[in-house]
Specification:
mainly beta, four-stranded mixed beta sheet, two-stranded antiparallel sheet, 1 helix, about 35% strand, globular, binds zinc ion
Length: about 80
């Protein structure tokens, strides 16, 4: 299996780095507004959360990133 790395940036320290799939988490909500990916900045330790569009979701799930499916409490 080819290891996949994802380029990411930190809004806190403005660092730019590459993360492996195991460093990322993807949460898929009911709408695109509640779909995001998160990681811990390796430079400053900040917990970063960014919205994930359709293409990013495809990229991350295809790369083996752990995915959490969020369910709306009110149906
Ligand atoms: Zn940072």
């Amino acid at each position: 299996m080819v290891p996949v790395v994802f380029r990411a940036g930190c809004p806190d320290c403005r660092g730019s780095f590459e993360l492996t799939a195991s460093a990322l988490r993807l949460a898929i909500g009911a709408t695109s507004k509640t779909t995001f990916y998160s990681f811990t900045c390796p430079d400053c330790g900040a917990a970063v959360r960014k919205p994930a569009g359709e293409r990013i979701v495809e990229l991350l799930t295809g790369g083996g990133v752990r995915t959490l499916r969020l369910h709306s409490a009110v149906q």
